[in-house]
Write a structure and sequence with these properties.
Elements: H1 7-17, E1 22-24, H2 53-74, E2 78-80, H3 85-94, H4 99-114, E3 120-122, H5 128-139, H6 141-153, H7 155-159, H8 164-184, E4 190-192
Parallel strand pairs: 1-2, 3-4
Helix pairs in contact: 2-4, 6-8
């Protein structure tokens, strides 16, 4: 789901309800799937800006291979907040990666996940611009300024000439459309809330 959709809250509640599960929150500094360390304001992964999207897609898949191997050895189920969409596919998308690369990345990820058959809990972000503005208001001006700066400096933001809060809202609207499209092709169990 989008920022503000309730991913962190739901993941924490699931971890309380499922005590044997390992919770991996998107803000965890040592998260094994993060492409680079998280920033102080969020998992924006701005450090990937100079990377080639093809190289990053391969790195992300190697991280999945390692994580899934480790998970199998631990024999402990995990709750992954923000994966695979927000913290991986979105990063490739915001790099303005070609659609073919995004489709290929998903096509290469699914066989890695097949043995584990993960359940996807997809939180829909409804309310459009009004809801996005409410999220900005609740998270405060510092977070809003960070998001605006971050979004406008992404490759896709620069390519589309996004600027200011209007640009950030345009980014999130487009990202929400992509989330709906990407999650529609999920090959395993899915719950949409």
């Amino acid at each position: 789901g989008q920022p503000g959709a309730g991913k962190s809250t739901l993941a924490a509640e699931l971890a309380l309800a499922l005590p044997g599960y390992r919770l991996l929150n998107e803000m965890d500094a040592d998260h094994p799937l993060h492409p680079v360390p998280v920033g102080t304001m969020g998992a924006d992964f701005g450090e990937v800006r100079g990377m080639d999207p093809g190289e990053l897609s391969n790195l992300l898949l190697r991280k999945w291979e390692f994580f899934l191997h480790d998970a199998k050895e631990r024999n402990q189920p995990s709750i992954l907040e923000s994966y695979p969409y927000q913290s991986h596919l979105r990063v490739l998308w915001q790099m303005n990666a070609p659609e073919a690369l995004l489709r290929d990345w998903l096509a290469r990820l699914y066989p890695l996940l097949a043995e584990h058959r993960p359940l996807l809990v997809m939180l829909r972000f409804t309310g459009g611009e009004e809801r996005a503005r409410l999220v900005c208001e609740r998270r405060g001006q510092e977070w809003t300024d960070f998001v605006i700066d971050f979004v406008c400096k992404t490759a896709i933001g620069e390519a589309k000439g996004l600027a200011g809060l209007t640009g950030a809202l345009t980014f999130f609207e487009a990202y929400n459309e992509e989330l709906v499209r990407w999650s529609a092709d999920w090959r395993f169990q899915k719950v949409e809330l």
